[in-house]
Structure formats: structure tokens, C-alpha cells
Amino acid sequence: MNETKKVVVVGGGFAGIELIKKLAKDRRFHITLVDRNNYHFFPPLLYQVSTAFIEPSNISYPFRRLFQEKENIRFHMGSLVKVNAEQNEVETDTGVLQYDYLVLALGTETNYFGMQNVKDNALPMKTIDEALNLRNTILLNMEEAVRAKSKEERDRYLNIVIAGGGPTGVELAGMLAELGQNTARKEYPEIQDFGSHIYLVDAGPVLLAPMSKKAQAEAKDVLAKLGVNIIQNTAVKDYADGKVLLSTGQTLETCALIWASGVVAREVPGLPKEVIGRGRRVMVDEVNRVQGLQNVFVLGDLCLQTTDKPFPNGHPQVAQVAIQQGQLLAKNLVRLQNNEAMKPFAYNDKGSMAIISKYEAVADLPKFSFKGFFAWLVWLFIHIIPLIGFRNKVKLAFSWFWSFITNDPTLRLIIRPQKKKAVEKEEVKSQ
To answer: Beta strands of 206-345 (E only): which ranges?
Structure first.
């Protein structure tokens, strides 16, 4: 019988979870998942959390609940500090773990392209925490707007600038416009023009650049009808003092710049500098092994793999790539244990989709594209399937059904956890 191998997986996103699920029943592997959060979440639906359409719990699932009764799986809550490849160990801020195989699947973080003011003041949306902060900001700004003493002040609170015309930016713009049409008018009698205060800014000439021309045209048409101001061939250059500076010299006054304009791979200290490629992605071989290292693998958005012939510049940073790489690596680790040759990764592109607004979506499949209500239904179905947990699927389906039927989701709660500094001030006062 082969010796048990210690597998440390850093990152509990799509790639890491798929790998662990496939290895869970093989007792030849002892698997430890490392993640800064104690839950897995579904990033494609973060924008619906940030627009108060669904609850965070609809798209989240605790790791320890997922691993119940899995004797060969453990969870280690912590953040990656450094990889020590020569010692076969990984340092986290909560301890050091030894490994036989290390799998890095940390994903990406928001890319501000060196603009410090934007980094300090804009609203990103890569995590549950950031989505909830965005939700609070929008709702608080609406409360400020109804109390405004002048049109200029009112506009500043109502204006929402979204930087980035990819799927995230388009979906956010559409959902916010729907919020304005179906909810703001009923709950905020003072606000009847919410949609006209939404600005979608993109540096490129088209929205949804990676998708078909049909999808691009549909996105622009639907958003325009909802009242969204679309500004193309224009980049955001700065954001300070409540003003967004555009590359054209134009400024937009707003208390909410939402940054959906790009990502960069998370940094992995300890890896050789020569394996760090474009966008800080880690260069790997055909089996997702880090170049020059025998037992360190990288999956998903973090890796740069150029051996797959249809994708010579690397794979798109989308969920399906991560899922398929996680599934294959699990099989390859089993092959290693069986003294068999590993199989190279080849991405099966199943297409891409984006929802624009209620009953409006676009879909690009390998052989054809379609749009409208049918694409919207397909989008809903496809985004329920990958959710972890039967209860999550049912809760999300019911939430969607009720919200779409009534046009009145009831999740607009402004929840503001007390900040540490505020707590410290209270403690000082009481002394």
C-alpha cells in the first residue's frame, strides 16, 4: 500500500473545491485546505448581493460543514505568507504546514493599475465583505440624497460610476437600473430618476468585449433603454474629493465609484521570480505544475498555461477553467500514486453568458449565440447548478422567483459593524 501523501490546497474557490471533492474518497491522500475565510462562495453572483437582490448566505457554504465526516480532509483558517519549496512547507499567518503536494489556487485580486486614489476610495467587489460594503454604501447614499439641500448635493449622492464594461460591470449596471425602476420609485418618492444617475465607463469601444457582436449590441441597447449612461473609449484616471477624472478630461461627481475594471493574480511569496508571468500569473506546464518544481501545482486564475494549443496566451480567467483544472489535477494526483503518466490539460470551452436585466441576457455557445428571455432562463438554471448545498439551491431559486414576481426584494438592510476605532474610543471614555 502506498504511503499517505499530504496535500495542501491554498484557496477554497472553484479549483480548490473541485480538486478536494474528487480526492475526498481516496484515503491515500490527507488533504488540508487553507483559506482566509471559513466559507466557499460563488463569485459570479456577488453583484446580486451588492445590489440587495439576494442574501450572502444564498451563495456561501462553510468549509467545515462541507467536510463533515471526511476523515482525510482538514481545514486551516489562515492567509498565505510564503511558500518554502525546498523544505516542502507553506507558511500561513496562523501556522506552518508540511506537504508532499502543494496546490495553489488563490485566484485574483482587484487591479487598480497603480492609481492610489482609486485604490483608496473606489468600491471593489471581489469578496462577500466588499459586496456588503457596496450594498451599504449605495443604500446610505440614497438616504443622504433624499435629505440633500441642493440638486448638486443630491446628484453627487445618487450618481454611481461603474468602471469596466465587462460582464461584471454590465450586470451591475443592469441590476442597479432595475433597482431604480422597480424599488427606488416606490420606497423613495423623492427619487424617480435613479437609472439616469448610473454611468458605465469602459476604456474599450464595446461592452462585453470577449463576447460576440450580437451580445455586445444587445447589452448596449438594453442598458440604454434602462437609462444607463454608457461612456466608451474612455478610461478612469483618478478619483479624489468625490470626483472621477476621465481620460477625456471630463469629471463626474459621485460618492460611489465601483471598480470592475480588471484583476491581477494574487502574489505568492517564495516562488522563483522567473516563473511569474503576465498579470502576476504563475507559469505552469501542461499538467499545471509550476515550471522547475516537481510537487507544486497552480490552478485557475492564478496560473498561466501556454501549452493548450487553442489558448497559446493562456486561458481566460473564468470559473470553467478553474473547475476543469481542479478535476483533472485530482485525477493526475491519483495517477501519480498509481505510477501512471499524468494527462495534459485541454480546456473545453462551453461558452459564456451575461445577464443584463430582468428577462434579458446574452449567451455565446461554441456553435451559436442567442439573447433575450430564453438566454435569461438558461442563465438562471446554469447559475443554480454549481452552488454547493441543496438548501442553497432551493433558497436561491425561491429568492429569485419571489423577487422577479413581486419586483420587490426585501433585503435592503443597512448593516454597519462597529469599527475597531469606535470600540476603542468607547473603552477610553468608560475608563
So the answer is: 229-231, 236-240, 243-246, 251-253, 257-259, 263-265, 282-284, 296-298, 303-305
Q: What is the pLDDT of residues 157-205, one digit of tens each?
A: 999 999 999 999 999 999 999 888 877 788 888 888 888 899 999 999 9
Residue 401 makes CB contacts below 8 A (sequence gap 6+) with none
Residue 106 phi, psi (nearest 5) = -80, -15
Closest CA to 100 of 3, 184, 173: 3
Among the options 18, 171, 178, 218, which is catalytic? 171
Which structural domain, as residue segments, surrounds residue 238? 116-261+358-406
Q: Provide the domain count of the chain.
A: 2
- 296 and 394 belong to one structural domain: no
Clarify whether 91 is annotated catalytic: no
Q: What is the pLDDT of residues 267-301, one digit of tens each?
A: 999 999 999 999 999 999 999 999 999 999 999 99
Pair 108, 301: CB distance under 8 Å: yes
Query: Rounded to two decimals, what is the model's pTM?
Result: 0.90
